[in-house]
Amino acid sequence: MTAIMEVVEAPQIQGRSPFTLAMRRLRRDKVAMVSLAVIALIVLMAVFAPVFAHLTGHPPNEQYRDTGLTPDGLPRGPDGTFWLGTDDLGRDVLVRIAYGARVSLLVGVAATAITVAVGIVLGLAAGFLGGIVDTVLARLIDVVLSVPFLLVAIALVSVTGPSLTITVLVIGFFSWASVARIVRGQVLSLREREFVEAARSLGAGDTRIMFVDILPNVLAPVIVYTTLLVPVVIVTQATLSFLGLGLPPPTADWGGMINEAQAYYTTAWWFILFPGLALLITTLAFNLFGDGVRDAFDPRADRS
Amino acid sequence: MNLLDVRDLRVSFGTPDGVVRAVRGLSFSVDRGRTLAVVGESGSGKSVATQTITGLTRGAEVSGSARFDGTELLGADPATLRRLRGARIGMIFQDPLSSLHPQYRIGWQIVEMIRAHQPQTSRQAARRRAADLLTLVGIPRAAERIDDYPHQFSGGMRQRVMIAMAMALDPDLLIADEPTTALDVTVQAQVLSVMRKLQQEFGTAIILITHDLGVVAELADEVIVMYAGSVMERAPRRDLFYRNHHPYTQGLLASLPSQTGRRLTPIPGSPPSLINPPRGCPFAARCPHVFDRCRAVAPPLVEVYGDTRHQSACWLGDGEAVAA
Amino acid sequence: MTPLLRIEDVHKEFPTQRREVVHAVDGVSLEVRRGETLGLVGETGCGKSTLARCIARLYDVTSGSVWFDGHDITSSSRRELRALRRSVQVIFQDPYGSLNPRRRVGSIIGDPFAIHGIAAGPERKKKVQELMELVGLNPEHYNRFPAEFSGGQRQRIGVARALALRPKLVICDEPVSALDVSIQAQIINLLADLQHEFDLTYVFISHDLSVVRHVSDRIAVMYLGKIVEVAPTEELFGQTRHPYTRALLSALPVADPDTADSREQIILAGDIPSAVGPPTGCRFHTRCPKAGAVCGSSEPPLEPVLDDGPEHRTACFFPLTIGENLSAAVLKAS
Which residues cross the membrane (chain A) (predicted)? Predict the structure, then answer.
C-alpha cells in the first residue's frame, strides 16, 4: 500500500464543502430558482430603465399634460402610448416603475450591506471577547432595538431633509442590531463547541480561533438572514417614501408613487395597482428566494 | 395468535440526496409476556421500523403489514392509531425529557393521559393510579413528587416517569427505543430491573430496541439482528450468543472489548449507503467469508441448525458458519 | 524515574448562575507513568472530563499542582503552555463536534503544524498525508470536509491531529463512546498500535468499564469529584475493595447470557447527589449499602487497605473482602 502511494502521485479528490452542497441544494429548489429569475428581471429592469424611457419616448419626469391626462385632468388608463397608464401629473407609470426599481434595489443592497458589515463585526466582538465589551455592546443592541424606528426617522428627516443617503443610513442604523444579535448568539454557542476546544488544545491563539474556526461557521446564518433582510429593507424604504420621508420629488420611487396614487384609487386603478404590484412581486421574490437559501443552508444538512 | 405480527415491512424516505431505503423487508412477531430485542448499529433501521408501526413516521413510503391483536396498523386512520398508542401500546424513548411536556406537572400529565383514553375514570381515581404507578417504578416519595415538573427529576428518574406513563393504561405491548442509552450504568441497572418487574407483573410484551448486546443478554427472550435495513439473524437469546450463524452477528460479538485484553477483531469498513443499497447481501463488502453469490443475490432469511426459531440470512451452510 | 505526569490535591470549582459552587474535582492526587495507559472511569458528573482538562491545562486548577515531566505547569505562562501543547494532546469524544465542519480535513490535520509554525506548503501537505495513512485514512481525501466521513473515520481524523506533533501524553476523552460497536473496536486497535509505535502514554477516560478494562494498565474510579479506588486493572476487577466500584462492575451489562443470569446484581438506591453541595464524609455514604456512622462524618483517605500492596489504594472505611457478598448488604439496607 505504502509503496504504491509513493509511486503514484496521489490524485486529488476534491471535497464538497458545506457551501458547495448548499448551492447545489439551492439549484435544485424550483421555487428559489424561479424567484431568482424574477429578481434578475427586476435588476435588468432597473439597469435598463433608460431603455424603457427610450422605447416609449417618455422620460421619467416628463409631464404630458395634454396627451397623458383626460380632459378632466385625471390620469389616463393603459393604452398603446402609455402601456401602464399615466399618473396624476401625466407621467408614464411604466417608465417611473422602472426607474423606481433603481431606488428600491439600491437602497435594499446598500442598507443591507452596511447592516451586515456592522452587525458581523460588532456581533463577533461581543460574542468572542465577552466581558465588558460584550456587556456594553449587548446593552447597545437592546437600546437600538427598542427605539421607535418610525418616530426617530420622521424626526431625523424633518431636520436633515429627505435624501437617498439619509434613507440608507437610517435603515442601516436601525437594522445592524438584529444582525449583531444573531452573530453574537452564534459565536456564544460556537465558542463552547468541541472543535474550538480542540484548537485551543493544539495551542491556537484567540485571533486564529476567531477568524479560522468561528467566522466561517457564522457566515451561513448571516447569508440566510441577509437574503431575508433585503425585502424588509425595500419595504421599509417604500414605507418611508409613502410617508413623504423618502426621496424628494420628482424622483420616481415605488413608495412615493403609491402615496401619490392614494387619492385616485377609485378613478385610476392602474396608478396604484402597478407600483403596488412591482413592490409586492419584488419582496415576494426575495422572500421566497430567502426561504430557499435558508432550506439550502439548513445546519441539519451538515450532518448528512 | 401472536400479539403483534409484522410481515415484510418496507419503509423508505425521500431526501434531497435520493430515496433512503431505511427498512427493507422486516418480519417478526411478539407474544404476550415476551421480550423481543431488536439489535443494530446506527442506521440499521431498527427505530424506523417501530416508529412506522405506531404511525409516527411522516412522509415515508410504507408497505407490508403489521397486525396488532387482529387490527392492521399500517394505513390505519390516525384516530385508531391514537387510541391504540398509549392505551394498548406504550412507548418509551431514549430521551425522556423530549417526551415529557416541560410546563406541566408529571402527575397532571399522567392523569390527562389516563383520562384521554378512559374518560369515565374520575380525576381522583386517575391521580391515585398515577401515584401508584410512580411508586411501582421506584420513585421515592411518589405521593409528594407527583406534583413536580419534569426538570426537577434526574435522567434516570425521568425515564422511570416515562415508564410509569407508558404503563399507565396497562398496555399489551411496550416499545422501548434505546431506553437506557442516555443513562449511567448504575441507573441503567435500576431501569432495566423496573422493566423486568413490570413485565412479570402485567405480562406485557416488550420490543426492546438497542445497540447494546449487554442489555440484550440481560433482558431479551428472542433477538433480531438488523443491518442496513434488513434482518441478518433471528434467534433465541442463548443461541444468538452461543450458537450464532450470521457473520455479522459474529463480527459484532468479536468487536466487544474482552476481559483478557487480547486484540479485538473489528468488522472492517463501514455500513453501506441506504440510498443505493448493494444488490446482494448488504454485509458482503465487510464479510470475511464473502463469495461471488453473496454479491449477486441477497440471501433470504432461512432456518438454520434445524431449529425453526433460529433463522439467518446467509448463504453459508450450518457447518461452514460454525467453522467460522 | 519521575512519572510523566503527577497531580497533587487538585481542586476545580465552577461558579453556577445561582452563585453556588460546583466542586467538579475535589482533591485528586494521581500519577501517570511513562508508557502506561491509565483508565479513568466514573458516571456522569463524577469529574473525570474536568480532571482531564485540568491535566491538559485547558482549565486552570482552583488549587493543587500539576507536574509534567518533572516541571510544575500549574501556573505556566501562555508561551510555556504553547510549548506544552506539543507534548500533551487530547482526543475528544464527539467526532462530529470536535472537527470544524467548514474546514477541509487536510487543513484540520495540518492545524498543529500551522499553529506551531513547523511545516508549510508542500512539506506540510506531505506530513498530513503521512498522518492520514498512519491512522488508516485515504490520503486522497485530503481536500474533503468532515461531513463526508463516517463517525469512525472522523475519529481517525481526530487521532491524526492529536498525533501530528508527536506528543508524549495523549488524553483520550471518551474517544469511542459515540461510535458503533464494530467501529469502536477499530479505533481501540488503532490507539493500541499507535501507543506501541510511538511510545505514547495514555489517560483513557470512559464511562464504559469494559472498554477501560480492555485498554488500561491501571484504573482509577471516580465518584463525585474524588478517586474512590485506584489499582492495576486485574486487581481492581479481581479484588474489588470499594463498594461503589463493585456496584459499578455489577451494573455493567455483560454480553453473555450465562454470566448475566448467574452473577450478583447490585442495584444501588437513588441517584448521584449534586456536586454543588456534595455529601459530607465519604461522598458515597448516602447510597452505600455498607455505610456506617463514621462514613457520614469523616472522609476516608485513599490508601492501601487490608493486605493490599502500595499499588492498590481505596478510600473506604469498610472495604470489601474477597468473596464478600454485597447484595446481601443491599437487601439488609433496603
Answer: 31-53, 103-129, 136-157, 163-183, 218-247, 267-290
C chain contacts of residue A208, beta-carbon cutoff 8 Å: 115
C128 touches chain A (CB under 8 A): no
- Interface confidence, given as ipTM, is 0.84
**C152 close to B (CB below 8 A):** yes
Give me the domain span that covers residue C326.
239-333
Q: Measure in Å the smallest separation between the Cα of C189 and chain B Cα atoms.
A: 7
Domain count, chain C: 2
Report yes or no on C133 lying in a domain. Answer: yes
CB contacts of C260 in chain B (<8 Å) are: 214, 217-218
Q: Is residue C152 part of a domain?
A: yes
Range of the domain at A173: 28-55+85-299
- All 3 cell numbers of residue B128? 391515585
User: For the whole model, what pTM was predicted?
Assistant: 0.82
Residues 6+ apart with CB under 8 A from C74: C61, C64, C65, C66, C67
Interface B:C, Cβ pairs < 8 A: 124
Q: Are residues C248 and C166 in the same domain?
A: no
CA of A254: how far to CAs of A208, A241, A259, A280, C206, in Å?
46, 8, 9, 10, 65
Q: Select the residue of C81, C101, C158 nearest A18 (Cβ to Cβ).
A: C101
CB A127 within 8 A of CB A141: no
Q: Do C254 and B217 touch (CB under 8 A)?
A: yes
The CATH code of the domain that includes A283 is 1.10.3720.10
Q: How many domains does chain A have?
A: 1
- Which residue in A has a C-alpha nearest to residue C113's C-alpha? A202
Q: Is residue C287 located within the same domain as residue C169? A: no
Q: Please name the residue of chain B whose CA is at the shortest distance from the CA of residue A301.
A: B16
Chain C touched by B217 (CB under 8 Å): yes
Q: What is the pLDDT along chain C (334 residues), one digit of tens a residue?
A: 789 999 999 999 998 878 888 999 999 999 999 999 999 999 888 899 999 999 999 999 999 999 999 889 988 888 888 888 899 999 998 888 899 988 899 999 999 999 998 888 899 999 999 999 999 999 888 888 888 888 889 999 999 999 999 999 999 999 998 888 888 999 999 999 999 999 999 999 998 888 999 999 999 999 999 999 999 999 999 999 999 999 999 888 888 898 888 887 888 877 778 888 889 999 999 989 888 899 999 999 999 998 899 999 999 999 998 878 777 666 555 4
